[in-house]
Amino acid sequence: MRHSLTARLTITFVVITVTCFSVVGFLLFQAVSRRIYIHDQTNIMLDARHLRRLAEEMASPADVATHKDRLIALVLGDNAEGLRVTDRDGHALIDHVPMGYELPAQPVVPAEQRIVPESIRSWKDHDGNEIRGVATAATLQDGQSITITVARSLADRTALLDKYRGDVALSLFTGLLVAVLLSYLLVRRALRPLTSMAESASAITAQRLSTRMPLQDAPTELLALAASLNDMLARLEQGFARVWQFTVDLAHDLRTPIGNLRGASEVALNRHRSTAEYEALLGSNIEECDRVSRTIESVLFLARAECPQFALQRVKLDTEQELHRIADYFEGLSSEAGVAIRVDASATVHADRDLFRRAVNNLLSNALRYTPSGRTIDLRAANTEQGVDVIVENPGQGIDPEHLDKLFDRFYRVDRSRSDSASSTGLGLSIVKSIMELHGGSVSVQSQADRTRFTLHFPHAHRFV
Amino acid sequence: MRLLVVEDEKKAGEYLKKGLEESGFTVDIATNGVDGLHNALEEDYALIVLDIMLPGMDGWEVLKRLRATRDTPVLFLTAMDELEERVKGLELGADDYLAKPFAFVELLARIRTLLRRGPPRDIEHMHIGDLEIDAVRRRVRRGGQRVDLTPREFSLLQLLARRRGEVLSRTQIASYVWDMNFDSDTNVVEVAIRRLRSKIDDGFEVKLIHTVRGMGYVLDLEHEEE
Question: Is this complex's ipTM strictly greater than 0.85?
Answer without folding.
Answer: no
